[in-house]
Inverse folding.
């Protein structure tokens, strides 16, 4: 493939995914409202789960929720069947993500939710799938054409699931009144953390300051500089 062909293919991917994205609006219905409202009122955490590419999307959604004031934890659907179910409490809700809504690996966590009366929420594209049928509330998005030329590799569908997850998180931000100062508490690292840091977070004061008076002997001043590790004195 030459340069123009590669760029042309990239634009095709964009157009295919945009077509899928435009259909998401129909997913913002009563079930979407009920899921946001249920998460807003939980006393525990949002346990987000999935398998395969949906699992990677679930990880990101969980991270977004946690960083914006909604405690969340990702549990891999397959690992859940090997002991990780113990990380889910009755105060939590489960948000399961699956394009097909039929992934066998989800059976364990779905049955666990039913057994212990833990609310199961879901995002999928299959109203006839067992995941939607067993969910208290389920968001259904229109099954899209994947950007993959074989219409197989999850591409458009994962983008759509990610947007739905973002919409849930942003709705919760507004409901909780989550502000910049709250975000800085959860995100002290990286460029975002650097941009949000306050002088009061990093300044030294009172006994931490290396201070002396003009009549002090230099030998004592040097000790004071060394103690406070500033390399200078006031």
């Amino acid at each position: 493939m030459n340069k123009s062909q590669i760029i042309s293919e990239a634009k095709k991917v964009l157009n295919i995914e945009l077509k899928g994205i435009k259909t998401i609006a129909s997913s913002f219905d009563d079930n979407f409202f009920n899921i946001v409202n249920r998460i807003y009122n939980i006393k525990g955490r949002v346990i987000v789960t999935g398998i395969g590419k949906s699992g990677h999307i679930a990880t990101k959604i969980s991270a977004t929720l946690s960083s914006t004031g909604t405690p969340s934890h990702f549990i891999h659907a397959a690992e859940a069947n090997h002991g990780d179910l113990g990380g889910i409490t009755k105060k939590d809700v489960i948000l399961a993500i699956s394009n097909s809504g039929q992934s066998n690996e989800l059976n364990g966590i779905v049955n666990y939710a039913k057994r212990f009366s833990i609310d199961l929420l879901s995002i999928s594209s299959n109203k006839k799938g067992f995941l939607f049928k067993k969910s208290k509330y389920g968001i259904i998005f229109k099954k899209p054409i994947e950007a993959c030329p074989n219409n197989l590799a999850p591409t458009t569908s994962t983008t759509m699931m990610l947007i739905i997850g973002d919409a849930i998180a942003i709705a919760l931000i507004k409901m909780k009144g989550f502000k910049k100062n709250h975000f800085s508490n959860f995100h002290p690292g990286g460029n975002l953390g650097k941009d949000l840091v306050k002088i009061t977070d990093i300044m030294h004061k009172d006994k931490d300051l290396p201070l002396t008076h003009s009549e002090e002997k230099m030998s004592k001043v040097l000790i004071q500089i060394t103690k406070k590790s500033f390399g200078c004195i006031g």
